[in-house]
Amino acid sequence: MNTKISFSILLFALLFSTSMFAQKSEEIKVWGNCGMCKKVIETAAIKAGASTASWSEETKILNVSYKPKKTDAKAIQEAVAASGYDTQDVTAPTEVYNKLHGCCQYERKAAAVVVKDGAKKECCGMENCDHKMDCCKDGKCEKDKACCKDGKCEKGKECCKK
């Protein structure tokens, strides 16, 4: 009888401890180019609470594991973006991206901007938009507007900074 109780207690303790220390793993797309990028991306993920972080230059995938009670994928992506690297869901601030070493600058995805209602939209897919959104509808460039050409914002037009 004592053996059954001891075994039950041991089993309960084992199950409780593994669920308490459970790790979640995620794959996150992160743009970058080189070994310097790798170091910054992985360091940012670790500082955001990831237990492990490994970014591949070839695949542009950041493999992270973390404790869900400590952090989440969104917080990790926000930290990586704050260090200058766009992720699948978060765009790095332009001023931080511009400070990256030349070899670390990559072809950027469309930059997100905040419009008056607080919703995020892409302004003509260019980072130099002045946020007026004159040529954009539903976050995309309207091809029939004067400031757009071939679906892209034209520099010098009313919706773009020079």
What's the helix and strand layout?
Blueprint: H1 2-20, E1 24-29, H2 35-47, E2 50-55, E3 61-66, H3 73-82, H4 94-97, E4 112-114, E5 120-122, E6 136-137, E7 140-141, E8 148-149, E9 152-153
Antiparallel strand pairs: 1-3, 2-3, 4-5, 6-7, 8-9
Helix pairs in contact: 2-3
Helical run tally: 4
Structural class by helix and strand composition: alpha+beta
The strand line-up of the biggest sheet is 1-3-2
CATH class of the largest domain: Alpha Beta
Low-confidence blocks of residues: 111-133
What is the mean predicted local confidence, pLDDT? 75
What percent of residues are in strands?
15-25%
For the record, the CATH architecture of the largest domain stands as: 2-Layer Sandwich
Helix content: 25-40%
The biggest sheet, with number of strands, parallel, antiparallel or mixed sense and barrel status, is: 3 strands, antiparallel
How is this structure best described in words?
With 162 residues, the chain is of the alpha+beta class. The protein folds into 2 domains: 22-104, 2-Layer Sandwich (Alpha-Beta Plaits), CATH 3.30.70.100; 110-162, no CATH class. The protein is 28% helix and 20% strand. The strands form 4 sheets. A 3-stranded antiparallel beta sheet has the order 1-3-2, covered by helices on one side. Helix 2 packs across helix 3 (73-82). The longest helix is centred in the N-terminal third of the chain and has 19 residues, at 2-20. The radius of gyration is 22 Å and the shape is elongated. Residues 111-133 have low confidence and may be disordered.
Give a nutshell description of this structure.
About 30% of the residues lie in helices and about 20% in strands.
